[in-house]
Amino acid sequence: MSEAAPELNLPPSVVSRADMTRLVRELELVDDELEAQKARRQGESGHYHLPNMSQALNDFLQLNKIDVASDRTRMDIKARLRKLKDHAPILHMTFATETDPESMQKLMAWVRRELHPQALISTGLQPSLIGGVYVRTPNHVHDLSLRTHMKDSRGLIVAALDKLKEVAQ
Amino acid sequence: MTIWWLAFIVGSLAAVFLAFIWISIKLSGVQGGGKDKKKQGTTDLDKAYSDLAEEDVNHLFNKEFREELRNRGRLKFEQIVDENAMFLKQDLDLTISQLNDYMKQQISSKLDSEFQTYSKAMKEAQELTLSVLQKTANELDQQRQELSQAMQKSMTAHEANMLKNFENNMATVVEYYVLQSLGEQFDMKAQLPYIMKQMEEHKKEMMEDMLL
Hints:
The complex is a heterodimer. By secondary structure, chain A is an alpha+beta fold. Chain A has 2 domains: 17-87, no CATH class; 90-152, no CATH class. Helix content of chain A is 50%, strand content 13%. Chain A has 6 helices and 4 strands, in the order αααβαβββαα. Chain A has helices at 17-39, 55-63, 71-87, 101-114, 146-152, 154-168; strands spanning 90-95, 120-125, 132-136, 141-145. Chain A has a 4-stranded mixed beta sheet. Chain B has a domain at 2-135. The longest helix of chain B is centred in the middle third of the chain and has 120 residues, at 63-182. Chain B is rod-shaped and about 200 Å long. The A-B interface holds A 89, 91, 95-100, 102-103, 106-107, 110-111, 114-116, 119, 127-128, 130-133, 135, 137-140, 142, 144, 146-147, 150-151, 153-154, 157-158, 161-162, 165 and B 163, 166-167, 170-171, 174-175, 178-179, 182-183, 186-189, 191-192, 194-196, 198-200, 202-203, 205-207, 209-212.
């Protein structure tokens, strides 16, 4: 009975499904390149000439301690990555301002640490939110925007005005 | 009344004057008629006496004498006319004086009566005007009070409405202000702690949803 493979960990630089698609494609390219080297018998000694890889793929390989020189491993990882690309839980997050990679990586790290290790994020832009985020999970919506927070806090302003009115009277 | 008296006096004077004229004419006629009667009644005998008498008459009542009589008659007539004129003037003056007094009296009484009537009417009109003015003033005062109350009520309602609108829209104003103030300066890095905190608060719900 074979031992179940551990779940793949995604690096923080892989945020969206598009990043995931790029990762899979890049891994396929690497696989093709290594297969080509193998066909040309360049890798028989076990030292393949690895093509240039993106930071995301490097992070992914290091994080999961994957040896791409192994054909079986590459095949397994490709299959698991494709499956993960199609079935990874996606968190739709709408922001009030443009996102920057650094912030998104921090956010992604938190999401994978606290919510789901293989979650992906789909981002959107809605300036009327003022601030905060509008999060849509597979089954729920969490409005964490500043607009909603202020709307919920309108009672505070009215209460303050009432208090001022009482003081004035 | 006095005008009739005046007319009566003038008519009397005119009648006296006409009677005097008639008597004068009659006297002159008697003089002429006597001469004719003597001529008709006398006989031839008497004709001599008549001629004689005529001669005496012509001698006595000669032209100068007749002229003298005429002058005397004229003077007498003028004297009578003057006296009557004087009497007439006196009567006229008296009548005019009485008439003036009467007119004054009548006019005074009439004027007094009219003035009393006018004064009474003026007093009534004044009282009526005062009454109307008082009534109008009361109505105006009442309307002013009603208007003041209505305006006060309206102002209170308007003030409350404005206050309510202000309170209702205050939050929107603040939101708009915050949006305009922070919209472009509140970047992702600045928001990240707030986002993390909010997500931390809803972590459990999101995690359960994603594990389904």
